[in-house]
């Protein structure tokens, strides 16, 4: 009979250790240290990941106000009210860094705003921005004239997608369904608040100006939207001409659920 098997567990382990060679004991000690280190690392990274997620939790599921991303205050002097409800939405890309988390997008917008105010003398130019995290960030917002598309700022809403969407560029951004869906949500808000016509249309900056924006990836995406203007009706027109020419003209058929 094996008397060791009849011993209590602590004594059994001690007897095994006593009967093992020095090399075996060192090997067991090394294995135990490795095990402890692995468990400690797993626990550490689990806590840090949880903490990071907690810190990156956005204050709203998809619509981020200026206050939420800690924008600098700015006193605007030009507005779009004379042309509201607006009929034109211009899509662009910022050709800057991508951001896939709320904190990163907020930081990128603060950097972008700081550069525009310091070097250009005016606030960040778009009405709204769309992050790679799928959230819509309020920039100038509704009713304020933008500085995104020369000749059309008084009579349009400008939306800038964060990132470089030129498909031919290395590390280019890719449009996600979440970005597209939430862009439509903010545009629906504009209709609901009276800032946009129900039959508003969307164009890329390249449709009305000499520009590569919004990049081939984003441009191909918006051309699939039901509110995209395939007729290229606004190139070369001033805001006053657009208002007069289309004030009583339906721009597109509006689905029943949007009326």
UniProtKB/TrEMBL annotation:
TM ranges are 29-47
Q: Which GO terms describe its molecular function?
A: N-acetylmuramoyl-L-alanine amidase activity; zinc ion binding
Q: Which PANTHER family match?
A: PEPTIDOGLYCAN RECOGNITION PROTEIN (PTHR11022), PEPTIDOGLYCAN-RECOGNITION PROTEIN LC-RELATED (PTHR11022:SF41)
The lineage is: Eukaryota, Metazoa, Ecdysozoa, Arthropoda, Hexapoda
- Which InterPro entries does this chain map to? Amidase/PGRP_sf, Amidase_domain, PGRP, PGRP_domain_met/bac
User: Where in this chain does the record put each Peptidoglycan recognition protein family domain?
Assistant: 64-209
Residue runs in coiled coils: none
UniProt key word Chloroplast: no
Every copy of the N-acetylmuramoyl-L-alanine amidase domain together lies at: 74-215
A GO BP entry: innate immune response
The entry assigns this protein to a family as follows: Belongs to the N-acetylmuramoyl-L-alanine amidase 2 family.
Q: What is this protein called?
A: (African queen) hypothetical protein
């Amino acid at each position: 009979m094996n008397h060791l098997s009849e011993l209590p567990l602590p004594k059994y382990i001690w007897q095994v250790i006593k009967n093992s060679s020095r090399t075996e004991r060192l090997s067991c000690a090394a294995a135990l240290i490795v095990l402890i280190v692995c468990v400690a690392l797993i626990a550490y990274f689990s806590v840090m990941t949880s903490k990071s997620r907690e810190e990156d939790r956005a204050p709203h599921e998809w619509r981020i106000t200026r206050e939420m991303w800690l924008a600098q205050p700015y006193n605007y002097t030009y507005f779009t009210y004379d042309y509201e409800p607006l009929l034109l939405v211009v899509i662009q890309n910022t050709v800057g860094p991508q951001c896939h988390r709320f904190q990163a997008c907020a930081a990128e917008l603060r950097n972008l705003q700081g550069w525009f105010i310091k070097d250009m003398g005016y606030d960040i130019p778009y009405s709204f921005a769309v992050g790679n995290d799928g959230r819509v960030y309020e920039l100038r917002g509704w009713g304020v004239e933008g500085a995104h598309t020369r000749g059309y700022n008084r009579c349009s809403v400008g939306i800038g997608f964060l990132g470089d969407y030129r498909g031919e560029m290395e590390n280019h951004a890719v449009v996600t369904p979440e970005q597209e869906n939430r862009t439509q949500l903010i545009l629906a808000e504009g209709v609901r608040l009276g800032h946009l016509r129900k039959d508003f249309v969307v164009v890329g900056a390249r449709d009305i100006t000499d520009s590569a924006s919004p990049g081939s990836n984003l441009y191909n995406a918006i051309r699939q939207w039901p509110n995209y203007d395939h007729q290229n009706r606004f190139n070369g027109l001033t805001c006053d001409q657009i208002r007069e020419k289309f004030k009583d003209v339906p721009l597109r058929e509006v689905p029943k659920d949007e009326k």
